[in-house]
Amino acid sequence: MIEIKNLTKYYGDKLALRNVSFEVREKELLGLLGPNGAGKSTLMNILTGFLASTSGSVSINGHDILEEPKQAKRLIGYLPENPPLYPDMTVREYLKFICELKGVPRTNHPKQIAEVLSQVKIYDVANRVIRNLSKGYKQRVGLAQALIGKPEILILDEPTIGLDPKQIIEIRNLIRTLKKDHTIILSSHVLAEIQSVCDRVVIIYDGKPVAIDTPLALSKKMSGSSRLSLTIGSVSELIVDVLRGIDGISRISKLREENGILQFDIFADPGVDIRRDIFEAMAGNDWPILEMRMNELTLEDIYLSVTAGAEQKGG
Ligand code: ADP
Ligand code: MG
Q1: How confident is the model at residue 133, as a pLDDT?
Q2: Is any atom of ligand 1 closer than 6 Å to the C-beta of 42?
Q3: How many Cα atoms occupy the beta-carbon half-sphere of 168 within 13 Å?
Q4: What pLDDT is recorded for position 223?
Q5: How far apart are the C-alpha atoms of 187 and 233, rounded to whole Å?
Q6: Can you name the residues that pair with 156 across neighbouring β-strands?
Q7: Which parts of the chain register pLDDT below 70?
Q8: How far is residue 47's CA from residue 7's CA, in Å, rounded to a whole number?
Q9: Cβ–Cβ under 8 Å, residues 20 and 14
């Protein structure tokens, strides 16, 4: 239903999306999870036709977003990162304006507006000026404008960002009710947000999907793997090379080097216990192991490791 093929996006020389391909199924709630700067908003802006990709294609129910933009866009309701609300309008005036923008026949305006007002539960503020609404209510008005025109697909960019915990729960519940009648793509940089409501998750990092699956399958895939914290009482440069020579290690990252001590985080393949091999390799070189601790990996671990990488790069 939504086909994303080989999308690449450059902003000048900055590569923001790297050859992204995946599909979104009908009536699916797909979560786009990734740290700030991963490319979520860029991808959503391309899916909705607000931004042109550098290469690649997007097809919405068979309509190419660039070749048949009218047909494709009619199927999509979009809540961008910063919804274009007009602060001086009342909620009702604003939604009427959106009806006109989206070409809803004038005779249908009152009925459509009444419907979306009740869908997102903002009937009581319909005649208030948008400027004076709380952040939570403004976000609902943003959702309401996305729903005008009865689009099949909703694309919601971090709809809970900046809301308090109570408002977050309310928006989350609202999204759950919208799921019955819509295909939804929801982005967030918060794992819990995505894990609790989504059918499938795309984890995006540095412009590229690094994992696509159901939250359960992702957790399971991870649960066989493990992360080992290893502290060695030597700073020999050969230690990393020796570790690299051990089978079953998928990734080694050096965390710290100080006072003659080296500390590593080591990711092991599912079902492999590398502790004995590490012990033998270190002992054979007279590198004392000061600590070795193994932890099962959860979905949160991979997301945290991805996020930590992003923070190091950004900061
Ligand atoms: P996210 O929504 O996941 O936080 P974005 O899609 O906003 O990520 O940004 C992806 C990358 O592209 C970031 O490195 C960001 O700085 C860069 N970027 C976004 N918009 C622009 C722009 N208009 N011009 C230049 N770089 C941009
Ligand atoms: Mg964003």
Answers
A1: 95
A2: yes
A3: 14
A4: 62
A5: 44
A6: 79, 186
A7: 220-224, 296-299, 302, 304-315
A8: 10
A9: no
Distance CA 140, CA 175 (A): 11
Q: List the residue whose alpha carbon is closest to atom 10 of ligand 1.
A: 39
pLDDT at site 315 = 31
Query: Could you give the CA distance from residue 141 to residue 96 in angstroms, rounded to a whole number?
Result: 12
What ligand has the least distance to the C-alpha of 161?
Answer: 2
Enter the tokens of residue 237. 């440069």
Check residue 88 and give its pLDDT. Answer: 96
The Cα angle at residue 97 between residues 96 and 101, in degrees rounded to 5: 120
H or E stretch including 218?
helix 215-223
For residue 223, which amino acid is it? S
- Taken in order of first residue, the domains within the chain and their CATH numbers are 2-219 (3.40.50.300), 223-296 (3.30.70.3190)
Centre a 10 Å sphere on the Cβ of residue 253 and count the other Cβ atoms it contains: 13
Beta strands, E only, the chain: 2-11, 14-24, 29-33, 55-60, 63-64, 76-79, 153-157, 183-188, 200-205, 208-213, 226-232, 249-258, 261-268, 289-296
Q: Calculate how far, in angstroms, residue 31's C-alpha sits from the geometric centre of ligand 2.
A: 13
Going from the Cα of 109 to the center of ligand 1, the distance in angstroms, rounded, reads 36
Compute how many other C-beta atoms are within 10 angstroms of the C-beta atom of residue 132. Answer: 11
